[in-house]
Amino acid sequence: DLKDVVRHELEHLTQDGENIRTGKYIPDDQDLRNMIDSGLLDKDSYFSLPKEVDAMIQGLYYKALVIIM
Fold first, then answer.
1. Most buried of 11, 17, 20, 42 (most Cβ within 10 A)?
2. Per-residue pLDDT reduced to its tens digit, 13-56
3. Four-CA torsion 34, 36, 41, 47, nearest 10 degrees
C-alpha cells in the first residue's frame, strides 16, 4: 500500500509544475478542491477530479503489474 501511495503522489508531480511530462498536463483544480473542503461540493467529488482519476489509474496499473509478477 505504501508503494501505491508513493506511485500516486509521483503521478501528481508529472501533471504540472517543474516535473511536468509531455502529454500529462492537467489544469490546476485547486478551486474545486477548496469547494470540496468547504462543503460546497460533495466529498465524493474528490475522486472524480481529473488529477485524482489519472493518479488512481496509474496506481491500478502498478498493482496489476505486481499481481502478474
1. 11
2. 999 888 889 888 999 999 999 999 999 999 999 999 999 999 99
3. 130
Whether the Cβ atoms of residue 29 and residue 51 lie closer than 8 Å to each other: yes
CA dihedral (33, 49, 20, 25) positive or negative:
negative
Residue whose cell numbers read 490546476: 28
Predicted TM-score (pTM) of this structure: 0.78
Q: Are 50 and 26 in contact (CB under 8 A)?
A: yes
CA distance 49 to 46: 6
Place of cell 505486481: 66
